[in-house]
Every structure is written in C-alpha cells, then in structure tokens.
UniProtKB/TrEMBL annotation:
It comes from Tepidiforma thermophila (strain KCTC 52669 / CGMCC 1.13589 / G233). This is PhoX family phosphatase. The lineage of its organism: Bacteria, Bacillati, Chloroflexota, Tepidiformia, Tepidiformales. Pfam families: PhoX. PANTHER family: DUF839 DOMAIN-CONTAINING PROTEIN (PTHR35399:SF2), SLR8030 PROTEIN (PTHR35399).
Length: 579
C-alpha cells in the first residue's frame, strides 16, 4: 500500500453517517466553526450589526447576504484571502417574524433585494484560532439586487433588452438568484443567474405574443409572483415592463480585486438558468467555459472565446467573454458526444425560426438548443474541470420526472427513470477543450446501494460506500479527489444534506465517503478548500427551510434564529483535510 497511511487517495478519515439532528457533524479529529452568517456586518462607520427584529434594507446592503451558495477562495498573501459568496435567494418566512406571504411590506421586499447578490469578504488565518473575516476590509463588497451593471455581447442594446428605465438596453440594476459560479484564470468571478423567473409576474398580460412565448419557455408565472415584488417595483411586472425579464438569466463577471468595478452581464454566454462557470484555456489559448442549465430536461453548454488568453494582459483577458461561440452538448448512446454550435444562420437557427441574428440566439438560447437536437439532461448543476487530468465532471442533481407520463424517457446519459438521486458524468475532451467531440462515461449513479437499484460507484464495492443523493456542487482537493455537496437529501433520504469525498482515479476510484452532515432544512450549497488544503469552507444554505421563524426546524448556527452561514472545517492537528 502506498502513501498517507495506506490509502492511494490520501482519504483516511472515518466517514460520518446520514443524520437528522440539528448539529454539524464531522469525522473524529475534525472541528467545524462559523466564519460568517447572514446579517454579519462587512463595513465600518457604522458597523451595522444584526438584529432580526430591526432589519432594514439600508443595513442589509452593508451586511453579509442571505442563503450563501457558491464559495470561491482567492489567496492574496500567506494567511489572507478573499472569500466570494453568492446569495442565491431569500426565505422571507425565516427572515421576518410573522411574515404574511400574501401581503409582504415594501420594507421586507427591499431587505430581500439587498440580501440577494454576492459578497466579497476579506478573511485572515490566525495561527491558532483559524479563519476570521475582516470587518471593514478595503476589499469587502456587496453586490445586490440593485447594483448597477452593464451588458456586453451580441444581445446588448437589442430592442428586447430595452426598458423604460434603460432605453439603451445596455445597463441593468442588480443580479438575482446567483447559484454556482467560478473564478477565471485571470482572477475574475463569473457568477450565474439561475432561477430568475420567480421574481417576475403577469406573463399572461404580456401583449407581444412572441415575447410571451419566450418567457413561458423560461418559466415566468402567468399571474402574480410568489414573492410579490411587482407590487412595489414595476420592473418585476411583465405586464408593465415585458423586457425586464430578458435582462436576467446571464453570467455576470466582476473583478473581486476592485470593489468599485462595474459588473458585466455577458450575453455571448447565452441565457438560461445558469449554473456554474468552469473556465479553462484551450491549447491555442482560447478560453473555454463549461456551464449547465439547471432545470429538468435542460442542457449542458460550452462557450469558446474568439480571443486568446494572455497571461500578461489581465485587462485584455477581461474582454474574452464578450465574443465567441456558444455550444450545447449532444451525448450519443455509444459513449461519444459532440458540441453543437448555436450560431444564427447555421442549421435550423434561421430568421424564419426566430433567429435573424446572434442576439436572438443569446436571449432565447433554450429554444436554439431545442432546435439543434441537444440532449435533455437530468438538471445540470455544477461542472468542474479536474485540475490534473482535464476530465470535465458534470453533475446531474436529479429528475423525478424522467420517463413519467408525457415527459422524455431515459437515454444513455440519463439512464434511470424517475431519477431521484442524480448522477455524475465524466466528459473526456477529444484532445482539447475546444475540440468538437468528446467521450463520456459515468463516475457515479447516486443513491443508497442497499435500497436503490441501478446505483453505480465506478465499479467500486458498493457495500463499502456512503449513500448519497442529489449531488450539487463539487470541487477538487490537491490530490485530485472529488468533493461533493448535496442538495436534496432532506426529501430523498429524509436525512440532512452533506459533504462527500470520492477518489476519481486509482484503486479507490468510486469509494464515496461522507465527510459532513448538515442541519435540518439546509442544503450544503457549495464547498471550497483553502490554498493549502488545511481548511474546507462549506456554505450552509437555508437552515430550517420548510418551516417558519416561529417554529424553525433548525436553530443553526447560534441556537437562536436560523441563519444561513459559511462554516470552516479543520483538523484538530492542523493536517490536510481528508487525512
Ligand atoms: Fe441553485 Fe441549481 O441549484
Ligand atoms: Ca446549485
Ligand atoms: Ca464548485
Ligand atoms: Ca440545487
């Protein structure tokens, strides 16, 4: 047996088990601590501390937002880094005492707008106390549902992008439903707008039937929204502002090193319920971005820039996402696959079919992907490229409707009817990330092997693996092991979500083991290692979801009100996570 205590993967921790108690559980020899919670102040003068009964929009704009999802770690110096955290959505029933979902107040709606977006938080590692965030640090930044941003690419300025607040079609306020994201090789953040449809109302009253049909394809409600923001902000009422809905559903790039920089929504990367941006450089220097559209029967995408990455010209790299070619994946039954270009004028993407220019392809990307015959997947979530092998890992979280009445049946890449537990696909590029073709195979078909038929753990002995359901976000440790956080075990297993580690090569390939168990109602939304792998950061999103503040099912993290939070896990002996 090889290195690190007899394990080729270096993973020697004692696995934890599925659990349903209201505490974070990690293996023996590890400890978990709180880094930052919803409402913690980011700025001084004044430092707006958290009081759940005295919350205002003004305070929220200066505090860590709600429902932390994606986590990024950007090292600045030894023991100093920036933590990037997305704030995907809000749970007003857990944020406001006595919340009335039929009659939210304007103040509540405005707090929610400020609780969305992204936080950039300076963090420091102390020799003994672990990581602390730095109140008032120069880099600290909040991007919210009202932060000004601008559009780039083929759809910028298009007539469908113009509104009464922005007759140019080049600027927009805010980013919403930021789920997964990624950090580019040039050090910017590319964050993804996922379920943006939920903020808009009254598609049934949109006069232009063509626009209405596009909105319907993206799931906008016909009548009132659940959140009722349209009562106080007319831009969320499609009857009054039919185009505002086209201004969400994009990838947003911003520079975390410049808190004053203007974020940009890149229309060349297409419009869908974006999940993940994983950016790598092709052999010829073009930037390649892998992306998913997280809804049942939607697609996996890839963008290839026109321009080439220049390691010595960060300014030029920051324009790479402004032009390029968008592709959508076709997974063939024989284990091969092809990236189908989505280019106006090519194949079925004609003016007669609604695609006179590339702008329409960018705005109505889902329809373009339908027409070229891409493979309809089981909810693509995170996609990451293995840092050593270059294999692309694509997570299909679950799809309970696969093969049910009136819905698409199984195919080779989505092989399980009513796929409740999800699966992970390995995409192996044919020589290069910019190549037209690839091969693919499964890493895992998830579930509890003791109970579910058809689970698969890359051929590893299934009696030894930890049960896992609804994989969502993934990352790699420095040894190349895959780490997975889950979103959905509270319904599929009736147990808390968790974090898992699985080797993807060597004799332990497929040996999936549970590392962490979260708290009731929460998903483990994202996870990221520190630069030396001695710390794992995990976002605990929506603790107590499904209950209300008055009868909350979780009191994480402080034994009081439930508050979404980022935690960090270290070994008590300071060693590498997983050992
Ligand atoms: Fe927000 Fe697709 O998870
Ligand atoms: Ca996700
Ligand atoms: Ca990830
Ligand atoms: Ca999810």
């Amino acid at each position: 047996r090889a290195q690190s205590g007899g394990s080729s993967s270096g993973l020697t921790f004692t696995p934890v088990r599925l659990d349903d108690t209201d505490r974070i559980i990690v293996p023996p020899g590890y400890k978990s601590e709180i880094l930052i919670r919803w409402g913690d102040p980011l700025f001084l003068e004044p430092a707006t501390g958290f009081d759940i009964d005295a919350q205002t929009a003004e305070k929220q704009a200066r505090q860590f937002g709600y429902n932390c999802d994606y986590l990024g770690f950007i090292p600045l110096a030894p023991n100093r880094a920036l933590l990037i955290a997305n704030h995907e959505y809000t749970n007003p029933e857990l944020m406001f005492r006595g919340y009335d979902d039929k009659n939210p107040t304007k103040e509540q709606v405005d707090v929610e707008l400020q609780a969305h977006g992204v936080s950039v938080v300076h963090i420091e590692r102390h020799p003994t106390r672990g990581w602390r965030y730095t109140l008032g640090a120069w880099h600290n930044r909040r991007i919210t549902g009202t932060t000004p941003m601008r559009f780039t690419g083929p759809a910028a300025g298009h007539p469908w992008m113009r509104t009464s607040e922005d007759p140019s079609g080049y600027t927009v306020l805010g980013t919403l439903n930021n789920c997964a994201a990624g950090i580019t090789p040039w050090g910017t953040v590319m964050t993804c707008e996922e379920n943006f449809h939920q903020y808009f109302a009254n598609n049934d009253k949109v006069a232009d039937k063509e626009k209405q049909a596009v909105h319907k394809r993206y799931g906008f409600p016909g009548g009132a929204s659940e959140r009722k923001w349209e009562r106080y902000h007319k831009r969320f009422d499609l009857a009054q502002e039919p185009n505002e809905g086209f201004r969400f559903g994009w990838v947003v790039e911003f520079d975390p090193l410049d808190p004053g920089s203007l974020p940009r929504k890149h229309t060349a990367l297409g419009r869908f319920k974006h999940e993940a941006t994983s950016t790598v450089i092709a052999k010829d220097g073009r930037a390649v971005v892998y992306m998913g559209d997280d809804e049942r029967f939607e697609y996996v995408y890839r963008f290839v820039s026109d321009g080439r990455y220049d390691p010595n010209n960060r300014e030029a790299n920051m324009r790479l996402m402004e032009s390029g070619t968008l592709f959508v994946a076709k997974f063939n039954d024989d284990g091969t696959g092809r990236w189908l270009p989505l280019v106006a004028g090519q194949g079925p993407l004609t003016a007669a079919n609604g695609f006179p220019t590339q702008a329409e392809v960018c705005i109505n990307t889902r329809r373009a992907a339908d027409l070229v015959g891409a493979t309809r997947m089981d909810r693509p979530e995170d996609i990451e490229v293995h840092p050593q092998s270059g294999v692309v890992y694509a997570v299909m979280t679950n799809n309970s409707q696969r093969g049910t009445s009136g819905k698409p049946g199984v195919d080779a890449a989505n092989p399980r009817p009513q796929n409740r537990h999800g699966h992970i696909i390995e995409i192996i590029p044919d020589g290069d990330h910019a190549a037209a073709t690839f091969r693919w195979r499964f890493l895992m078909i998830c579930g509890d092997p003791a109970k579910d038929k058809g689970t698969y753990f890359a051929g590893f002995d299934q009696s030894l693996v930890s049960p896992i359901s609804s994989p969502d976000n993934i990352t790699f440790d420095r040894r190349g092991n895959l780490w997975i956080s889950t979103d959905g075990q509270t319904s599929s297993f009736k147990k808390n979500d968790g974090v898992y580690a699985v080797p993807v090569s060597g004799p332990e390939r497929g040996y999936n083991r549970q590392f962490l168990s979260a708290v009731p109602g929460a998903e483990c939304a994202s996870l990221i290692f520190s630069d030396n792998d001695d710390t794992l950061f995990v976002s605990i999103q929506h603790p107590a979801e499904g209950t209300t503040l008055e009868n909350a099912s979780s009191r994480f993290p402080d034994g009081k009100e439930p508050r979404p939070a980022v935690i960090f896990i270290r070994k008590e002996d300071g060693g590498t996570i997983g050992s």
